[in-house]
Amino acid sequence: MAATEPESPWQSKSGPHVQQQGGDVTQHVPVLIEPVVEWLALKPGHVVVDGTAGGGGHAGRLLECVLPGGRLIAIDKDPAAVARLKKRFEGQPVDVIHGDYSEMDRILAQFGYAPVNAVVLDLGLSSDQLVDAERGFSFLVPGPLDMRFDPAVGEPAWKLLERLPERELADLIFRFGEERYSRRIARAIVDERRRRPIRTTEHLAELVCRCVPRSRVHPIHPATRTFQALRIAVNDELGALKRALEILPDCLVPGGRVAIISFHSLEDRLVKNAFRNDPRYLPLTKKPIRPNEAEQLRNPRSRSARLRVAERTAQNGPIR
Description:
Elements: H1 33-40, E1 47-50, H2 57-66, E2 71-76, H3 79-88, E3 94-98, H4 104-111, E4 116-122, H5 127-131, H6 157-163, H7 166-177, H8 182-195, H9 201-211, H10 224-234, H11 237-247, E5 252-262, H12 265-277, E6 281-283, H13 293-298, E7 306-312
Parallel strand pairs: 1-2, 1-4, 2-3, 4-5
Antiparallel strand pairs: 5-7, 6-7
């Protein structure tokens, strides 16, 4: 599901990648869709879960694989995504559920579907969220600095910036964004908020750009890492992934498979370590699968995607 901002800081802010509010039609292009299908080895009659269903790209392809007789469970935290999914899959053997994939065991038990044959997680941000100015994920278009996947849960990013002390802000930006100028950015945020609140994406992006020099070698926007760090913190993305990795084996039948697509090293490290260290997982991919050149040319936002797949063993018990 994840998407990143366009890599060039000089890319136009107009055009098809920017809209003022969410619509009924998805703009998200799913990544690594055929490798996911191949590794999950789905059959007609299987039950498969897309825990980050988003625009429904992976979900639609997975549904094709389990028909006839199978079923798709599509879960997403974002109410706007859930509304689009319900329209897309109306009348089909699909249950669309508003929820958090880190609570998948509870969700599947509630609907009577545990255990299932396969689970897919496409982590992070979808293009639909990125292009919706009202959600505040993008530094390329002005909007409220929110960044919540579910606007009804938790605190928006502007509140986080308002309440955290300078040292905690610097640590957050460094840890989740791997931003080398984190202390300079945190100091600038604290100085600025004394004068006026930082409530918009445009305000924050301009502030960060004054702190981070542009690189000609790696032409990403100076605000990329800071926005990533805030989004991860606001949505507790790493905490959700840790919880999911602990409960996913109990959601799968023995021999069932889980495919997880991550977009940065923090996520990929958690997945890799869980698959290696938890005896309930049998890793099937020794190294992460990356998009081929054709997919990267077709969808530049896929460049950082990494797919790992594991199979549920017959062993029980928590991580050793």
